[in-house]
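Quick log. Single chain, no ligands specified.
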Amino acid sequence: MPLLVEGRRVWLPQSAGDLVRAHPLLEERARLLRGQSVQQVGPQGLLYVQQRELAVTSPKDGSISILGSDDATTCHIVVLRHTGNGATCLTHCDGTDTKAEVPLIMNSIKSFPSHAQGGRLEVHLVGGFSDDRQLSQKLTYQLLSEFDRQEEDIHLVTLCVTELNDREENGNHFPIIYGIAVNIKTAEIYRASFQDRGPEEQLRAARALTGGPMISIYDAKTEQLRIGPYSWMQFPHVDFWLQQDDKQVLENLSTSPLAEPPHFVEHIRSTLMFLKKYPSPTNVLFPGNKALLYKKNEDGLWEKISSRSYQ
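-> predicted structure:
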């Protein structure tokens, strides 16, 4: 069944701009989201989702009340929610394999029982801007097309992507919204930034930088964050990249050098240092080749519940 807006079929291909112009409610929602001030989200009850990760849970979760992600430039943050059981999935898509990722997102929501509750599937797409290489535009089209290909009716509720999330300054383009959060209990979606991107921020970032595919990181039944075990190929020329100045790192390791947040280069350098230290992660980072497990403690902060020996 098709992608729907206000109960009507969305006909593709068309640009995000054309789509919202045809549906004033979509345009209004995008305008309201852009106009919000950015909320600083603290670590309590938060599950932070990195690039090429997805997390899904429901209002019954006693540990997690907020899913969030940021630092999206050409990337898009996708929220899919079932209005009957409240199951909510948030993922940070970069266009690596959208065709494989959308079914993963769909199946993550289907894993929650929804019988006899009615409700519908609603999708929210946020991120990207009018970048020179048109990567955002391509990703917007891929996501809309893949959701349109799914068997279920999916209602497009928020579309604040690409040209709808673009601002221009001195001839350069930037995203307006870099990050969002969703409140699992109330379904509110809002502009957000995050100080705490853990646990295991560097390890998770290293997996993405070395080309790891989209993965689910959270088990809502046990309320545990599950990391790994991962393996990766040695990152090519890691010493060379660590010797380059900030400009070279930015221009060569970003999809949108002018639009990156201020901490981008520092983040890339620390991830490269991590990859240099752990060129082969299997037994060093994952003793016994077992996953690292984390659970929220009484203060709402992540606490490790499995051993780890690397320093």
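The chain has a mean pLDDT of 92.
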